[in-house]
Amino acid sequence: MSEGTNIKEILDGLIEEYQKERGTIIGLLQDINNKFRYLPKDALIYVSKKVGVPLAKLYTLATFYKSFRLDPVGKHLISVCMGTACHVNGSPRLLDTLERDLEIKAGSTTNDNRFTLETVNCLGACALGPLIVIDGEYFGKMTQNKLKKVIKKFSKD
Ligand code: FES
To answer: What is the CATH number that goes with domain 76-156?
Structure first.
């Protein structure tokens, strides 16, 4: 593994739990995704060998379920809701602003690894639309002004 034995130890711990609990392979992938915030390629190769599940099957699962990521995430994850209610209330304009100010497209990460920008479907809080979520924190009724302030705040920490 590229980042040394530490990752191996973490994976061994998760695999051991998975085997002890007779968990599902999806549960194991979720644990790995939670731990690293994405599924590192090396981790999938390691798990495939250790657990005896073909790598192709792990990739199929990893790409099928939206909650899994195959690319590393920046320090802050910005999710812009593009569900209908948020859309009609202006989320496309907010997304445009974010893409312009961060100089990235949705689905990518800034060069300094500070922000990852993504779009998501309805988060079930339509009354708060347009809604943006940063690192799990909900920012509802978002406006261009509020957005600038929020991004400024996250640019500093
Ligand atoms: S459409 Fe955005 S929370 Fe429902």
So the answer is: 3.40.30.10
